[in-house]
Design goal:
The chain is α/β, with parallel strands linked by helices. It is built from ten helices and twelve strands.
C-alpha cells in the first residue's frame, strides 16, 4: 500500500483534514493500533514531531505498555501523547476512517460551492471562487493520486477561467469551508489569482522546520518547494486577463491546515485583504506515514509561514474581523469596489 510520506521526505505532502481529527475523536475507543504500530508511532513522534520535547518518552512508553489490556484507556492515552507532541494537529487513523473523513470533506466542499452560487449575489465586476478542502483517495497508488491532484487543480483553474470575462476588476477567494487536505493542488489551482504576474517565479510562503526554511513558489506551470517541482501541469496554466487584480480572502473557524496554508500564501500579496473570523489554528504541516498494521499517522513537522516569513503555527486573524456570512461578503465587496482597479468601471 502506497501512502503519503511528506514533502519533508520524498513523497506527497498531506496536511491532515480537520475532519479527520473530528472522526478520530468520535471513533470507537476499541480502535487501537497493533503493538508493533504503537512502537512505530512513538518512535516517529519522538524523533520527528514538532513539539516532541513536551513529552516524557520513557514515561509514555511505560504508560502504553501498562494499558494493553484496556483498549479504551489505551486509545485515550495514545491520543493524549499525539496531541501533546503535535500541538493537536497530528492524528492516528485506520485507513477506513481516513477514507470516511475524506468523503465527508468532499461533501462539505460541494455544499460550500453550491451555497456560493445562491448566497448574496456579488457585483458583476467581482469574481467569486470557492477553494474547498481536498485530498486524493486514501490508499490510491502514487500515479492515481498525482492524476487526481492535477485534475482538481485544473478544475479550480477552469472555474477561474470561466469567470474571467474581462470585466472582473476584483476577486473573492472563499476559504471558509476549507478544512484542509493537500495544499499543493490548492496553490496550483488558485495560482491565477495568487500570482501577481503571468511570468517568472513568485514565492508565496514557506515551512519552518527543524532543518531550516523550505520555500513555496509558483511558476506559470507548477508549484515548487525550494525551487524543485512539487506539482505541475507540464505546460502553462491559466493567466488572468488582468494579472495582479485585487483579491479579498474569506476565512473562518473552519479554515484549517492546508486551508490556512492557502490563506497564508495570499498574505503579503499586493492588493490583498482578508475578512471573516480567526482560523482553526492548525497552520502547521503534517507528514503522513503508513504503519505496519495498515493504519496511518500524521506527524506534525513544521510551522507554516507567509511570504514575508510571518506565521506562528496557530490561529490566523484576518485583516478585518467580521461576523456572519452576509457581513463578511459585504465587507469584502465594499473593499474590492473601492480599489483603483474597480474605479470607473
Amino acid at each position: 500500500m502506497q501512502m503519503c510520506k511528506g514533502v519533508l521526505g520524498n513523497g506527497a505532502l498531506m496536511l491532515t483534514l480537520l475532519a479527520a481529527n473530528a472522526t478520530a475523536a468520535t471513533a470507537s475507543t476499541s480502535e487501537v493500533p497493533s503493538p508493533e504500530a504503537q512502537v512505530q508511532i512513538l518512535d516517529l513522534l519522538e524523533h520527528e514531531a514538532m513539539y516532541r520535547d513536551k513529552v516524557d518518552w520513557p514515561a509514555a512508553r511505560k504508560r502504553l505498555a501498562s494499558l494493553q489490556a484496556y483498549p479504551g484507556a489505551l486509545h485515550t492515552a495514545l491520543r493524549e501523547i499525539i496531541v501533546e507532541s503535535t500541538g493537536g494537529h497530528g492524528v492516528w487513523m485506520t485507513l477506513a476512517r481516513k477514507r470516511e473523513a475524506t468523503e465527508r470533506s468532499k461533501q462539505v466542499g460541494a455544499e460550500a460551492v453550491a451555497k456560493a452560487k445562491v448566497t448574496g449575489a456579488v457585483d458583476a465586476r467581482i469574481g467569486w471562487v470557492v477553494i474547498e478542502g481536498y485530498a486524493a483517495t486514501p490508499g490510491a497508488a502514487r500515479q492515481d493520486e498525482f492524476n487526481q491532484d492535477i485534475q482538481r487543480a485544473l478544475q479550480w483553474q477552469d472555474v477561474i477561467r470561466g469567470k474571467d470575462s474581462g470585466d472582473r476588476c476584483g476577486w473573492i477567494v472563499d476559504l471558509r469551508s476549507n478544512h484542509g487536505g493537500n495544499m499543493w493542488p490548492m496553490l496550483l489551482g488558485v495560482a491565477p489569482l495568487l500570482r501577481t504576474s503571468s511570468t517568472g517565479v513568485e514565492e508565496v510562503g514557506s515551512f519552518a522546520t527543524a532543518h531550516g526554511s523550505r520555500r513555496w513558489s509558483l511558476t506559470p506551470t507548477m508549484v515548487q518547494v525550494d525551487g524543485r517541482p512539487r506539482l505541475g501541469f507540464g505546460r502553462p496554466g491559466y493567466s488572468l486577463k488582468q494579472p495582479g487584480a485585487p483579491v479579498a480572502v474569506l476565512v473562518g473557524s473552519n479554515t484549517a491546515s492546508s486551508g490556512e496554508a492557502t490563506m497564508l500564501s495570499f498574505r503579503g500579496r499586493p492588493q490583498t485583504r482578508s475578512f471573516g473570523q480567526s482560523t482553526a489554528g492548525f497552520s502547521t504541516s503534517n507528514d503522513t506515514r503508513p504503519l505496519v498494521d495498515g493504519s496511518v499517522l500524521a506527524v506534525t513537522t513544521a510551522v507554516m509561514k507567509d511570504r514575508t516569513g510571518a506565521g506562528a503555527g496557530a490561529r490566523i486573524t484576518p485583516d478585518e474581523l467580521t461576523t456572519g456570512d452576509a457581513a463578511t461578503l459585504a465587507a469584502a465587496q465594499a473593499w474590492l469596489l473601492a480599489q483603483p482597479a474597480c474605479q470607473g468601471r
